[in-house]
Amino acid sequence: MDTEKEENISKGNIAEIKFKEWLDKHNIPCWYIQQDISTFSPALKKYFGSKRPDFMILLPHIGFIFVDVEHKKVYKDYENFALDGEETIKYSNLQRNFNIQVWFALSNEESCYKTWYWIPVSKVLEIGKIPKFKSSKSGMNFFAIPLSEFIQIGFGDSLDRLLSKCFLKEE
Questions:
Q1: Which end of the chain is more exposed for a tag (fewer CB within 10 A), N or C?
Q2: Chain mean pLDDT for the chain
Q3: CA angle 150–58–96, rounded 5-degree value
Q4: 43: domain range?
Q5: Cα Rg for the chain, rounded, in angstroms?
Q6: HEC assignment per residue over the chain
Q7: Is the pLDDT of residue 170 over 60?
Q8: pTM here?
Q9: Is the model's pLDDT at 61 over the cut of 80?
Q10: Buried-state track 3-30, b at ≥16 Cβ within 10 A, e below 16
C-alpha cells in the first residue's frame, strides 16, 4: 500500500474516533458499524458495494440515520468539499431502496475535529446533479459541494442543533 493511501486511511480512522468522542460527550445513542468484510451481507453489495456508513445514530421517537464519517479538507479556493460521486450514488441507492436516511459528517485536523460539517446524501445529489469534476490523479468523479450547504456542528453542540437546522430555516 502506498504512503498516501495509508495516511488517508489513518486520517479517516482518527475522524471516526473523534466523531465517536463527540457522540459520547453528548450521550447520543449509536452503533459503530464494523467495517470488516465478513460482517457484511453479500446481498447488500448490489446496493452500495463493500463501502458502508460508519455509524447508526438512534433518534428517540424518530428512528435512526446512518452516518458516513470522513476526513475531508476544504478546497479553500472554491469554499467547498469534494465528495466521492460513486460513493454518494451508492448511498443514495441504499436510502431509496430501504427508506433509510444516510448523511455525511466531515471534519479534519485543521479544525482539530471541533467542527463537523453535516449533509444528507439526498442533498448532495440535489445540489450536485452530476459529479462536477474528475480527479486527474485517481480518475474518480466528485461532487463539489459549497460549505454554505452543510450544517456546521461544533464539538460543544448537541444533536439538537442538527435537528433544529433541518427543520428551521434561518432568514
A1: C
A2: 86
A3: 65
A4: 3-167
A5: 16
A6: CCHHHHHHHHHHHHHHHHHHHHHHHCCCCEEECCCCHHHCCHHHHHHHCCCCCCEEEEECCCEEEEEEEEECCCECCCCEEEEEHHHHHHHHHHHHHHCCEEEEEEECHHHCCCEEEEEEHHHHHHHHCCCCEECCCCCCEEEEEEHHHCEEEECCCCHHHHHHHHHCCCC
A7: no
A8: 0.89
A9: yes
A10: eeeeeeeebbeebbebbbebbeeeeeeb
Quick one: cell of 102? 444516510
Answer yes or no: are the C-beta atoms of 66 and 102 closer than 8 Å: yes
Q: Tell me which of 48-52, 70-74, 76-80 is least confident.
A: 48-52
Give the type of residue at 38. Answer: S
Total number of domains in the chain: 1
How long is the chain? 171
- Answer left, alpha or beta for residue 29, where phi above 0 means left and psi between -120 and 50 means alpha: beta
For residue 55, give the C-alpha cell.
455509524
Domain CATH code at residue 64: 3.40.1350.10
Cell for 126? Answer: 440535489
pLDDT of the residue at 129:
67
